[in-house]
Amino acid sequence: MDFISEQRLDDGVVERAFRLGEIPGFLWTPASSPAGPAPLILAGHPGDLDRMYPRLLARARHAAAAGFATATIELPGAGVRPRSAVAEQARADLRRAVTAGEPVSDEVVDRLVLPLVEAAVPEWRAALDALLAVPGIGGPVGFSGGVISIGVRLAAVEPRIAAAVLFAGSYVPRAIVEEARRVRVPLLVLLQWDDEHNDRQMALDLFDALGSPEKTLHANMGGHTGVPQHAGDDAGRFFSRHLMGAA
């Protein structure tokens, strides 16, 4: 991991841009952490760091105020990274079905999501290896955001993930629903009830399948980008309960 820039923001949060090989990312750390190394939250997102930066920064500032460090990386095939012709075709097929008011087939969802999960999860784990070696960063680790299939796979296979807040805002392959039964860490799932980009029943089926003994679903009215502030506050309290107490 090579840090390529650093700046202190007006609230004292330190933002560092980095590259992990060819993968760009950001690390935000609190102004101070008197209790020792800051627990780390991995901030998932649907891709394209430039487009998502304002929302990611807001989430990182909110987390830093509670004493957490936050890190994120660019997803495969997004932003400055090489495109996948297979994924682009699958995305076009999905949009065509949604625009026509037709059901989105399992085959289209699989073509779009499963290769992304297979590529992204090892990158997140490599980033985690590097991030936990940064002075001032420590465990335990949380995952927050989407793509929800990536979050489910990470929570199932990465033992350093101690809790996760999953954003139910994308289509989920049936294979990932089956994998969800292996997840055991505490979970908070945020669902926008009127999300125009999400199959609500698919999200409910995934929640039902998640194997965690402690799991909570917060469903709020509104579209994809209408997550209310109190939902973010709930996520912060969730991580404080599960990560700060274990630090």
Which key phrases capture this entry?
247 residues; alpha/beta; nine-stranded mixed beta sheet; 25% strand; globular
Q: Give the end-to-end Cα distance, rounded to a whole number of Å.
A: 24 Å
Could you state the oligomeric state of the chains shown? single chain
Number of DSSP strand runs: 9
Q: Report the helical percentage.
A: 40-55%
Please provide a written account of the structure.
It contains seven helices and nine strands. It is an alpha/beta fold. The chain has one domain (2-80, 117-244): Alpha/Beta hydrolase fold, catalytic domain (Rossmann fold, 3-Layer(aba) Sandwich). It has a nine-stranded mixed beta sheet, sandwiched between helices. α2 (85-99) packs across α3 (106-131) and α3 (106-131) packs across α4 (148-157). The longest helix has 26 residues, at 106-131.
Blueprint (SSEs and pairs):
Elements: E1 2-8, E2 14-20, E3 23-29, E4 38-43, H1 49-65, E5 69-73, H2 85-99, H3 106-131, E6 137-145, H4 148-157, E7 161-168, H5 174-179, E8 187-192, H6 200-209, E9 215-220, H7 229-244
Parallel strand pairs: 4-5, 4-6, 6-7, 7-8, 8-9
Antiparallel strand pairs: 1-2, 2-3, 3-5
